[in-house]
């Protein structure tokens, strides 16, 4: 073999340097992304290994209860009112069902009042709840800022208030005054959703992110997802689609069709702040003759309603979701009320994130971790 000329050596060195520079760039562009003919990028081996470990742990079936094991015995004769944002929301309805199920065990009465999904309806429902003079009120899935007058009146009457997805963070809240708020941590949900994409794609993905920028909580979630996706140099954010949750049925199909035209080969994964985006994206993907179990692989960063599980289990345009344990959270709501009635602090428990897929759901249509019912019965003496 003949030795290379100085010019050949310089070309080779420049080529290696260019390849290394490409591999060091972070993938947060909202442009068209890499060309299909572009050489494979080095990816992100360190971040990929971390994402794979986190995803594998989140996908594990839970076999034990890791929540509170101790607490006060059940008080008796309590009446709880669950004010629902709207009972057509599967999450709100799922948590309400858990509250009703737990009430039968602990021996309390529960009444659900539907706010019908409008500010006026929620305010009227909350006012009606206060007029019933219950032992406590649940704020089921709505911003307490919508009902500031009612919250102030309930607080003045020393009625314990517990939120379900009422404010952004789990745990007690001073402003508004909630004994506790029950929800998963948005930081954890956002991170594990992005990590799933990194792991599922082996560090090479073109991603579309669906969000609703009009909702501060949703915008914060999507910002956190972007931040985590950017940790992997081989993952590129192709586009961020801002579609209000109220408009997904009318706008998502058209937007998805446009995305398929813009990124026919580079769009491999999607993540949405709520599973509903994929319910409305499915017709456009089907019309484009995309396979239900093929690209783009979709994950919902939160919720986990029955329709999402049905899409996942049937492999129809959704691959995974990070679900809320609605029933367990309903039981926790009553346990937290019992702690409030007994003069103790909130339990501080926050459900860990879980990733549901067709491989680990067992055909279920909700995420219902085991063990909590028996533990709460034991705590309450029931």
Describe the structure.
42% of the residues lie in helices and 15% in strands. It has 382 residues and is α/β, with parallel strands linked by helices. The chain has two domains: 26-60 and 187-321, 3-Layer(aba) Sandwich (Rossmann fold); 79-183 and 328-351, Rossmann fold, CATH 3.40.50.2300. β5 (171-173) and β6 form a beta hairpin. The protein is globular, with a radius of gyration of 24 Å. Mean pLDDT is 90; it is low at 1-41.
Tell me the domain tally.
2
Helical percentage: 40-55%
Superfamily at the CATH H level of the largest domain?
Response regulator
The end-to-end span amounts to 85 Å
* Shape label: globular
| Low-pLDDT windows of residues | 1-41
SSE ordering:
HHEHEHEHEEEHEHEHEHEHEHEH
Q: Class of the largest domain in CATH? A: Alpha Beta
Please name the CATH topology of the largest domain: Rossmann fold
* Total of DSSP H or I helical runs spanning 4+ residues: 12
Structural class: alpha/beta
Mean pLDDT equals 90
GO molecular function: carbohydrate binding
Main location: other
Keywords: Signal
Pfam families: Peripla_BP_4
